[in-house]
Write a structure and sequence with these properties.
The chain is an alpha+beta fold. The protein has a single domain, classed as Gcn5-related N-acetyltransferase (GNAT) (Aminopeptidase). The protein is built from 4 helices and 5 strands; from the N terminus they run βααβββαβα. The protein has a 5-stranded mixed sheet with strand order 1-2-3-4-5. Helix 1 crosses helix 2 (34-45). The protein is globular.
Length: 148
């Protein structure tokens, strides 16, 4: 397995893996609007501060992390917006190996930490705990619809 930094040029393989993972269990997201999906992926991978990493088995993308580099008062961190492993490869330790490879890459590039959010009722929650992440006490996420 090999970690590679990805770019907007890799949008097709990124989109294929993302759509396959997140339109199925346990997420069941509706990404049937291809224009919306294209805009979302472009937003995540096409900015100057974007950091998209792929984990490859030969030429096949097995896992994906999309996020950005944030310069914070405590230092620079990697904010992960999306993290996924190919559905046929889940449960085989690839996600954990990928996360370790990401951590090594970040350390080599002077990035001190990782921040991400997930729901507490999905398998990803246990995955992150298993991989040494901690819940932030006192941290609250807010959302508001502006069309209602």
């Amino acid at each position: 397995m090999e970690l590679r930094k990805l770019s907007i040029c890799d949008k097709t393989i990124i989109t294929e893996l993302f759509r396959d993972v997140f339109t199925n269990e346990p997420w069941n997201d509706d990404w049937s609007d291809s224009k919306q999906l294209d805009a979302y992926i472009t937003d995540l991978i096409g900015q100057g501060y974007s950091l998209t990493l792929g984990y490859f088995d030969g030429e096949r993308l097995a896992a994906l992390s999309m996020g950005y580099v944030k310069h914070w008062y405590k230092g620079t961190e990697y904010v992960i917006d999306e993290f996924c492993v190919d559905r046929q490869r889940q449960g085989r330790g690839i996600g954990t190996a990928f996360m370790k490879a990401i951590e090594a890459y970040l350390a080599e590039n002077g990035i001190f930490g990782i921040f991400l959010q997930t729901e507490n009722n999905v398998p990803a929650y246990g995955f992150y705990l298993h991989n040494g992440f901690s819940e932030l006490n006192g941290h609250v996420s807010f959302a508001k619809r502006t069309d209602e």
